[in-house]
Design a protein that fits this description.
The chain has 254 residues and is an alpha+beta fold. The protein has a domain of 94 residues. The chain contains six helices and 14 strands. The strands form four sheets. It has a four-stranded antiparallel beta sheet with strand order 1-2-3-4. It has a four-stranded antiparallel beta sheet with strand order 8-9-10-11. The C terminus is likely disordered.
Length: 254
């Protein structure tokens, strides 16, 4: 038996998430079939458009067909077009979650698109949110990172030492720092997500996908009594950004 232990379940792509692409391709082919049948376009143009449509659909569907996540007793395996990536839960050092508004969500589809990235040393792998039970996978790896790092990070923070979440630096007394800029806890205001960025204070913006371990960050924000302004909903793919009042912040800084 491998160090990962016995496989528990394998999760594949939910094909209904790609229904819009398939319908768009079908409608495009039907439209051009009608145009060539009525003499409005030449047969050569029709053939080119049909081939291009099929190529675009295949460019999305073929890599999707190769994507799998297999959860094991002690780890997981991420399968993609590029190969297999295995991670023990005990070696996971960071998870990242990229967020951005979904342009044309299907009925019942979350308005926010999410990509999960896993890191163990130099090894990384990505999981797209069209995988079955994406939130379950996110919870499993976030809990693993919390087991590996949570107690130490919380102890460092409570002891007045700096803790880092990618470009974000948190200090119990000083507040939150990004680069040369520091915002005191009292001045932080509502923390939310807007168009794929974490928004802090009077408009300091940080790309959400580069923030390490957002669930652990959320816990420390909670501990400090920070107004999270829809941040939990954004992590769950249910909110596209802050409220209009919060989004009016000025002097945005990347």
């Amino acid at each position: 038996m491998s160090a990962l232990g016995e496989p528990c379940k394998t999760l594949g792509v939910r094909w209904e998430r790609h229904t819009n692409l398939l319908l768009a391709g079908l409608l495009n082919v039907l439209l051009w079939t009608w145009l060539v049948a009525t003499g409005r376009v030449c047969v050569a143009g029709y053939v080119v458009v049909v081939l291009l449509t099929k190529a675009m659909v295949a460019a999305v569907m073929l890599p999707a067909a190769a994507r799998r996540v297999t959860l094991h007793e002690h780890g997981l395996v991420v399968q993609s077009w590029s190969g297999l990536h295995s991670f023990l839960f005990s070696e996971l050092e960071a998870v990242y979650l990229a967020l951005w508004p979904r342009p044309l969500p299907l009925p019942g589809e979350p308005p926010v698109s999410r990509v999960l990235r896993l890191q163990a040393g130099p090894r990384m792998a990505s999981v797209l949110d069209d995988i079955e039970d994406f939130d379950g996978v996110l919870d499993v790896v976030s809990n693993a990172v919390n087991t590996n790092l949570g107690a130490r990070v919380t102890a460092d923070f409570d002891a007045g030492r700096e803790v880092w979440f990618g470009p974000l630096q948190l200090h119990r007394e000083r507040g939150v720092s990004v680069g040369e800029r520091t915002i005191a806890w009292a001045d932080l205001g509502a923390v939310g997500v807007d168009r794929g960025h974490l928004v802090l204070g009077d408009g300091l913006r940080v790309r959400f996908g580069v923030i390490a371990n957002p669930q652990l960050l959320l816990r420390l924000f909670d501990q400090q009594g920070v107004n999270l302004s829809g941040l939990r909903e954004a992590l769950a793919g249910q909110a596209t950004g802050r409220s209009e009042a919060d989004a009016a912040a000025s002097d945005a800084v990347e």
